[in-house]
TrEMBL record:
ABC transmembrane type-2 domain ranges (all copies): 34-271
GO BP, sorted A to Z: response to antibiotic
Compartments where found: Cell membrane; Membrane
Taxonomic lineage: Bacteria, Bacillati, Actinomycetota, Actinomycetes, Micromonosporales
Main location: membrane
Membrane topology reported for the UniProt record: Multi-pass membrane protein
Keyword Ubl conjugation attributed: no
Protein name: Transport permease protein
Entry-linked InterPro entries: ABC2_TM (IPR013525), ABC2_TM_bact-type (IPR047817), ABC_2_transport (IPR000412), Nod_factor_ABC_transporter (IPR051784)
Molecular function, one GO term: ABC-type transporter activity
Provenance organism: Micromonospora sonchi
Family: Belongs to the ABC-2 integral membrane protein family.
Length: 276
């Protein structure tokens, strides 16, 4: 037996299959021009609209409402690109038989998951650069000059993107069909965006039960991590904690990465419910 992906007589690893799958996913994504436009436009438009609506400076700081909003919207953009888009796309793949054909290749679920996550990482980088550009140009958000802050941005971005992507892959099994996938994925995303303080500034003004609910999910911690990168410590009185809690952010996001992978491997379905 020979294969184009490895040495004769050997089966390619899941990681290598995942890289090939990621390349295919990226080509497919960028060929769908309407999907590309709306994927990038949704968080950018929300940031532009809310940034124009919110006005004022927080007491004890020179941070404006728009500056406070921008890092949170970067987190929301990542969640939209990963959780919503991945969940919807996988439900569509399952409904139209794409996953069934991949299963016959054969392809292990881990390779498919790796391909989807790598595709999401690439798209999310572009989304983040767009939102940063809008924040800097339109709302005078100041980019940090301290390398330590960019290091924080890097690990929050990587852990947050992976956690949201895995959650989206796992949640895709909740959709009964491709038609219902959009509604199934958007409802929890919008609820979590509100309880995580993305659309509500400052976060400390949220009711206590909502703050507790949002703290159970990665979006709240990802947004907090990004605010720690772009905002001065003088804004901390507006938060719900006296410090940025980088250790807790890393712990929660890493836990969601591990838990999300376990959920994917245990709940992932190759066939739709009607195909059983």
């Amino acid at each position: 037996m020979t294969t184009t992906l490895g040495r004769p007589g050997t089966r390619p690893s899941a990681a290598r299959l995942g890289l090939y799958r990621a390349a295919i996913e990226l080509k497919t994504f960028f060929r769908e021009r309407d999907a590309v436009v709306f994927t990038f436009a949704l968080p950018a438009v929300i940031l532009a609209l809310l940034g124009a609506i919110f006005d004022g400076v927080y007491p004890g700081s020179d941070v404006t409402s728009a500056e406070y909003l921008a890092p949170s919207m970067i987190a929301a953009g990542i969640a939209s690109t990963t959780f919503v888009n991945l969940g919807t796309g996988i439900a569509t793949d399952r409904d139209d038989g794409t996953l069934r054909r991949l299963r016959g290749a054969p392809m292990p679920p881990s390779a498919y998951v790796i391909g989807k996550i790598l595709m999401a990482l690439v798209v999310t980088v572009g989304e983040t650069l767009l939102l940063l550009g809008i924040a800097v140009v339109a709302f005078d958000v100041r980019l940090p000059t301290d390398p330590a802050r960019w290091f924080t941005f890097g690990w929050v971005f990587l852990l947050g993107t992976t956690a949201c992507a895995l959650a989206g892959i796992a949640a895709s099994s909740l959709a009964g069909s491709a038609r219902s996938a959009g509604a199934v994925m958007h409802l929890p995303y919008l609820v979590l965006a509100f309880v995580s303080g993305v659309f509500f500034t400052p976060v400390g003004a949220l009711p206590g039960p909502l703050i507790t609910l949002g703290s159970l999910f990665p979006l709240k911690w990802m947004a907090q991590g990004f605010r720690s990168v772009f905002l001065p410590d003088s804004i901390l009185p507006q938060e719900v904690v006296p410090s940025w809690e980088h250790g807790r952010i890393a712990l929660v996001l890493a836990a969601w990465c591990i838990g999300g992978m376990l959920l994917c491997l245990t709940t992932f379905r190759w066939h739709g419910r009607r195909g059983r």
